Amino acid sequence: MEPMHTCKLFGAIKTILGIKNAIPIVHGPVGCAYHMRYLLTLRGGSKVKICSTQLSQEDVVFGAEKKLKDTIVKVDKYYKPDLIAVLTSCSTSIIGEDVFRVVKEIKNEINAEIIAVSAGGFEARQNEGYEDTIMTLIKELVKPCKKSDKPLINFIGMYRGGPDLKHLKNELKKMGIGVNCVLTSGCNIREIRNLTKANLNYSFCDISAIKPSKFLKKKFGMEFIDYPFPIGFNNTYRFFNKILDFFDIDYPLEKEYAEFKEIKDKLIKNLKGCKVAIISGPTRAVALTDFIIELGMEPVLISIDLVGEKTLKHLNTVLSNTNFEPEILIEPDLIQIEKRLKDTDVDIILGGANELSFSFTYKIPVVDVMHGQAKTMGWDGAREIARTILKNIKT
Ligand code: SF4
Question: What is the distance in A from the centroid of ligand 1 to the CA of 57?
Fold first, then answer.
């Protein structure tokens, strides 16, 4: 009744907004674009451009191809984007507006590259919005390139820039590994076209990056890695180690990892036995579970909003060497999570802004691991999450 996921259009918009100088045009009534913009700018105060064809009642009954064409031309002329993505919404998906034909017809009349994605909210949840849009970008834009003779990697399904991405890139640079394209967080259209220059793809999202990674392997022979996700000291070590192994690079990673032993021992001493609820997306939920076990804490409730084909397998691997038997909620709604939180003795929640209401109601501190400006990945992220837990934990 109270869903914890959103619609396909959200995923499509978020994917496009991660590309520099790209503009999504939502072919639908005004609310779809407005509410998405509101949601995506609420926390960071950032400015995003989401255009709309602003359909009327008559348009959603009889179709509005002309309005769409006029909007595309206007957006191309006014904003001069590198890429326009036409996205259907519920109303235009229901009437079957042929946006693919419109895009084909107008392609030569505009300067921007243009793609279309069927993104009606009722078609699927946000994960398919991410996945379909990435697949469309790959199919429409990526071309075969000469492989780089230096170690070069793509991050697939990473929608988070900020300090996390900067930190991972810096660490990889120290190892002599370049990041070719981050699909999609701060990449540009040229980087997408040249995606196949890289020697390796790393999937950052269980629910939207595995299919594109498999496609890139089949079509262009690009190898990919999909696990682990670099949250926590152990996971960060394994993440870099896998990449170093792939490129056969000799690097003192063990030494780097060993430098955190003292910090870790102190954290374990203070956090041992604390009970944790994790409320998150699949890839993060698995990595966070691993991390809190690493810190000596106990996962008592794990709520995962959507699951990918490998999520539960990875989660089982994490839990298999422990005596913990947390309650696992798969794709729950808000009422279920609230009920379980109320009945479970939890010292801290690892989640996002959505969980603040639980925090106020049940007086359980929340560590926000979803905010784009929070440090969560790599060595820096592990230190930061642990410090924040320590600062906030119920005593
Ligand atoms: S569910 Fe449909 S109407 Fe609602 S925002 Fe998504 S696309 Fe728009």
Answer: 15
DSSP labels for 79-143? Answer: H--SEEEEEE-HHHHHTT--HHHHHHHHGGGSSSEEEEE---TTT-BHHHHHHHHHHHHHHHH--
Rounded distance between C-alpha atoms, residue 159 and residue 162, angstroms = 10
Identify the residue whose C-alpha is closest to ligand 1 atom 5. 32
Token code pair at residue 98: 């042929």
Q: Are 374 and 386 in contact (CB under 8 A)?
A: no
Q: Report how far ligand 1's centroid is from the alpha carbon of 85 (Å).
A: 17
- Ligand 1 pocket by Cβ (under 6 Å): 7, 9, 28, 32, 89-90, 120-121
Could you tell me the two tokens for 163?
């300090």
Handedness of CA 308, 43, 335, 232 (dihedral sign): positive
| Per-residue pLDDT tens digits of the chain, which is 395 residues long | 888 889 999 999 999 999 999 999 999 999 999 999 998 887 666 789 999 999 999 999 999 999 999 999 999 999 999 999 999 999 999 999 999 999 999 999 999 999 999 999 999 999 999 999 999 999 999 999 999 999 999 999 999 889 999 999 999 999 999 999 999 999 999 999 999 999 999 999 999 999 999 999 999 999 999 999 999 999 999 999 999 999 999 999 999 999 999 999 999 999 999 999 999 999 999 999 999 999 999 999 999 999 998 999 999 999 998 999 999 999 999 999 999 998 888 999 999 888 888 888 988 999 999 887 889 999 999 999 999 999 988 55
For the chain, strand residue ranges (E) read 22-27, 51-52, 83-88, 113-117, 152-156, 178-183, 200-203, 223-225, 275-280, 298-304, 327-330, 348-351, 366-368
Q: Is the distance from CB of 210 to CB of 309 less than 8 angstroms? A: yes
**Closest ligand 1 atom number to CA of residue 89:** 7
Cross-strand pairs, 226: none
- Report the distance separating Cα 392 and Cα 395, nearest Å: 9
Domains and CATH numbers, the chain: 8-141 (3.40.50.1980), 152-226 (3.40.50.1980), 255-392 (3.40.50.1980)
